[in-house]
Amino acid sequence: MQIKAIRPDFVAEITEIDLRLPLSDAQVAEIDKVMDHFAVVVFPAQALNDDQEFAFANRLGPLEETRAVVDVHKQRLAYNQMNDISNLDVDGSILALDDRRRMFNLGNLLWHSDSSFKATPAKYSMLHARIIPPEDGNTEFADMRAAWDRLPEKTKHQIETLVCDHSLIYSRAQLGFDAFTEQELINYTPVPQRLVRRHPGSHRKSIYLASHIGTVHGMPRPEAMVLIRDLIEHATAREFVYSHKWKQFDLVMWDNRCTMHRARPYDDKNHKRDMRRMTLTDCAPTLEQPA
């Protein structure tokens, strides 16, 4: 493997590896080592099919077994664990403008960390580009370890022990989306997460932020949401952000424990975008992990 830094201590590119082939133990260990240091890794020109993407992800750790979507029964991909990050219906046509799935998926434009709304949140996510639009549609990543490092000491002391509740209901409410079924409301019951985590691989502290945060324990909600808004504004300053311009067959992997990300708009009314994401589950709820 050839490893090249794109953004020092944050983003790297790995070439001279074919992810269609089974990974050796040494390759798995090296990828984990690179991820611990950089947090976002780009594997260009990986022409994977679903079976190969599934095998690659499964080799790196346990996969999330459920997808956080609406209309979960409308699945066009082969694996239940594979997230369909596209504007496509089950027949491959572009989703109607008023389709409930399209409205829900607009939440991907908000800064977030994958599955922070699950009791045990996500470790790595890996997104593979099958079809990309002719322009726009970048994905942006924010470095939550660097954002922590640059906080004033007074703010670090204020937030270090705080616990927040996360839910997809909270993030979609920011867009005015509330068309959840009764079962979906149960599925997305808020869960508690630490606001500050220690990343186990690098031993660096990180702010654990997401648009999914709706309350902070022990704080009135308006005061809590002003705090979260200010922290997200700080953590997504341009100095902390890398914007990835997609090429077909790029696979980008990121560590949700110390990054946030968001999709950027594209012309989803006239152009297809087919991206497929696999996500690894973390080892335990954040409250059960060492602070």
What CATH architecture do you see? 4-Layer Sandwich
Secondary-structure element string: EEHEHEHEEHHEHHEEEEHEEEE
CATH superfamily: Clavaminate synthase-like
Tally of distinct domains: 1
* Number of continuous helical runs: 8
Overall pLDDT confidence = 97
Describe the structure using short key phrases:
291 residues, alpha+beta, Double-stranded beta-helix, seven-stranded mixed β-sheet, globular
Q: What can you tell me about this protein's structure?
A:
This protein is of the alpha+beta class and 291 residues long. It has one domain (2-288): 4-Layer Sandwich (Double-stranded beta-helix), CATH 3.60.130. Helix content is 24%, strand content 25%. The protein is built from 8 helices and 15 strands. It has helices spanning 25-38, 50-60, 100-105, 144-149, 153-159, 168-173, 182-187, 221-235; strands at residues 2-7, 11-15, 40-43, 83-86, 122-131, 139-143, 163-166, 191-194, 196-198, 205-207, 213-216, 241-244, 251-255, 259-263, 274-281. Strands 1-2-3-13-5-15-4 form a 7-stranded mixed β-sheet, covered by helices on one side. A 3-stranded antiparallel β-sheet has the order 12-6-14. The chain is globular and about 45 Å long. The chain starts with a strand and ends in a 10-residue tail after the last strand. The model has no long low-confidence stretch (mean pLDDT 97).
